[in-house]
Amino acid sequence: MLISTIRDEIITEIGGDTADTVLATKILQFINSALRRFPLWTRSRFMYTTKTGTLSSGSNSISLPSNTLTERVVYYISSGNQLRIERSASHEWFNDARNTGATGAPNYYEIIGQTMYFDRTADADYTIYLECQQEQDGVLAGDTLAADTTVAEIIKDGAKSYYYYYVEDIPSAKEFLTLFKNGMDELDAKYVAMELGTHVDDE
User: Which residue, among 164, 190, 192, 189, has the nearest Cα to 178 in the 3D structure?
Assistant: First the structure.
């Protein structure tokens, strides 16, 4: 679904005119504002991507790829095998395990700010793969939403909440904010069911 389609549906549903370019620009801004909330309040497959960075030989850190948020899996590939790099249990644990005098492939990492540190100095160049959430922002009217229509409806609720706060219709703003948050909760529950599955404990 095109972002422009979502924008025009919002304009129609709030009683506006899709030919009003000023309103269309404002609604696109509200769509982006709503999208920025997604990584804070929910998880969904459409928010994840795989980014890469190069850990150079003789180095033990890389800058995070741009727009990287919470990482899910970090790995490198050796002889065709995907080898996972584990996140450190804590900052203190990482400091104890870190040995910059040792060289080899990375086993553990920790992130401070926009830098990813590894437990040892690389003995060769490694391509580091990060399956991670990415920032949801900066969409344009001609962009295609890489998610299903249920996500489009959640975005619409969020954008409407921003719109009604903008026009100072606080009751409507709060109503759509509640719908927005409820949609986020449902989206997160769907993600958990798909990614983690369900199980029954034996008693």
Answer: 164
Amino acid occupying residue 140: L
Q: What does the pLDDT look like over 108-157, one tens digit per residue?
A: 999 999 999 999 999 999 999 999 988 888 899 999 998 888 999 999 99
In the chain, the number of structural domains is 2
Residue ending a domain, among 134, 155, 175, is 134
Nearest CA-CA partner of 114 in 59, 57, 62: 62
Is the whole-model pTM more than 0.85? no
